């Protein structure tokens, strides 16, 4: 079988591939959906967010088909440890790190990733993977290939975050999963908000409105605490450019899911999701903090819950939220376990010795830290 890892692609080379459709075809046959590494968002990120970080995109091909796609960067540190390593690229607006694997070729793709990294002179230390689903196709393939190749690996962190996955209708889910006291309070807030004017919930469907919706989202987010702290998308031109490019590409491919609540035709809450395959990923939410007493952020999440549960093409949605998020955890009952892995890189001669030493040092320092914290 003719299978090889493509030499690591530079950012310009990766962007040119987008026009050839190789990544789009792979994304249509993905084993584990990840909108952040699918072409819509990945190309936008490579074009606008790579900045001074040398992002490499590893392709694995089988004959003329791409079967695996993994963007990586060199990191000078591993968490708090002064140990360099290779890591999957998780930029500021990437909330899931699963590489794109072709369905039915999961193990072959990971053999190719490891073969490329083992042979790469630029690949220091070990491979650090974060943002993976513990029950996903990547986790299963990594474990299987590591066992097959005698490659050391370990899980180094895990947490749970909210996920929406249910066969219930929106109304049934709302009634059975959200506490009656909370439902009553939210109905009261909706009624009070309606007393201020005309409240309308809309979903973006007309391409002619896309630019205006992006403008309004950026302005709404920047008007709140994120804008004051300098973390809103609009605070940095390259971040707002990424957002616009990602939304435009996702809309063109049918993968943008954008909602808003208007009060007298003015947006008071907006929400952006990105879809891939049968799944979707919650990306950003913005709301008018001057109307905080009406909880507009929660109200648009309720609208989102109904929109997703009533859409037969969306089977599940990842909240992409932090662990123990008080708002979304109270609305969504399901959970997704997110993990990090540390995986050995092989090689020849001194390269292998250096990589083994880096991995042993990281594992050893972690063990000491756990002992000091009483977690051993």
UniProtKB/TrEMBL annotation:
InterPro entries: Acyl_CoA_acyltransferase, BioF2-like_GNAT_dom
Matching SUPFAM superfamilies: Acyl-CoA N-acyltransferases (Nat) (SSF55729)
Residue ranges constituting the BioF2-like acetyltransferase domain according to the UniProt record: 180-302
Domain of life, per lineage: Bacteria
Name of the protein in its database record: GNAT family N-acetyltransferase
Organism this protein belongs to: Sphingobium olei
Taxonomy of the source species: Bacteria, Pseudomonadati, Pseudomonadota, Alphaproteobacteria, Sphingomonadales
């Amino acid at each position: 079988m003719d299978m090889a890892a493509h030499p690591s692609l530079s950012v310009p080379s990766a962007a040119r591939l987008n026009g050839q459709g190789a990544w789009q075809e792979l994304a249509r046959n993905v084993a584990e959906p990840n909108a952040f590494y699918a072409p819509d968002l990945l190309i936008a990120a490579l074009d606008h967010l790579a900045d001074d970080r040398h992002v490499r995109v590893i392709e694995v091909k089988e004959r003329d088909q791409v079967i695996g796609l993994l963007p990586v960067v060199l990191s000078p540190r591993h968490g708090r440890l002064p140990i360099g390593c290779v890591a999957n690229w998780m930029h500021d607006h990437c909330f899931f790190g699963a590489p794109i694997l072709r369905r039915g070729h999961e193990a072959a793709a990971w053999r190719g990733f490891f073969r490329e990294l083992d042979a790469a002179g630029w690949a220091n230390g070990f491979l650090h993977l974060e943002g993976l689903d513990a029950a996903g196709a990547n986790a299963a393939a990594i474990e299987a290939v590591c066992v097959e190749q005698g490659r050391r690996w370990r899980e180094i962190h895990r947490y749970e975050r909210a996920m929406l996955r249910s066969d219930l209708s929106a109304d049934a889910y709302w009634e059975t999963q959200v506490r009656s006291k909370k439902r009553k309070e939210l109905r009261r807030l909706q009624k009070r908000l309606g007393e201020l004017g005309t409240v309308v919930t809309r979903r973006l469907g007309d391409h002619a409105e896309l630019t205006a919706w992006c403008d309004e989202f950026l302005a709404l987010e920047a008007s709140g605490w994120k804008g004051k702290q300098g973390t809103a998308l609009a605070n940095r031109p390259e971040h707002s450019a990424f957002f616009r490019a990602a939304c435009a590409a996702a809309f063109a491919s049918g993968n943008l899911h954008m909602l808003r609540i208007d009060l007298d035709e003015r947006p008071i809450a907006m929400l952006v999701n990105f879809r891939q395959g049968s799944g979707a990923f919650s990306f950003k939410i913005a709301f008018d903090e001057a109307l905080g007493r009406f909880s507009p952020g929660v109200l648009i999440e309720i609208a989102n819950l109904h929109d997703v549960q009533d859409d037969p093409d969306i089977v599940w949605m990842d909240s992409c939220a932090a662990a123990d998020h008080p708002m979304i955890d109270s609305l969504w009952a399901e959970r997704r376990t997110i993990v990090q892995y540390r995986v050995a890189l092989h090689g020849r001669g001194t390269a292998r010795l250096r990589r083994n030493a880096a991995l042993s040092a990281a594992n050893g320092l972690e063990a000491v830290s756990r002992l000091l914290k009483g977690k051993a």
